[in-house]
Amino acid sequence: VNPATAPDFGRVYGVPNLGANTIQVQGLVRAHASGEFVVLGIRFANLNIQTGKAAGIGNAGVMYIGPDSSVAATSKTLAFELSQQNSYSLGSSSSGDTWDSMSLWTLGTSTDQYLANVTTI
Prior knowledge:
Number of helices: 1
Structural class: mainly beta
Oligomer: single chain
Order of helices and strands: EEEHEEEEEE
């Protein structure tokens, strides 16, 4: 494994500027360039996502949800297609089962708005 390209692990310990979409991460092993994307690994019992239109916060398009980074409208692993007036729920806050956010990928439009609610463990 090449240490320069291997996955790195850390812990989010601050959100200094929510408007600029920045986070502070502690415990990383290698240097990272500005603008790299982050996959947050959160164990959760329940996830509920509403489109902006369904939640009354804007007009959202379609969001695709799947288990890998190749998620798309034509993906063979597509789990759910979240349309304009729809919601998606995964898990149950009353069961002992948990899910890992690292196994969910989404594809949508950057101007779309979504309302997400996560019950963490």
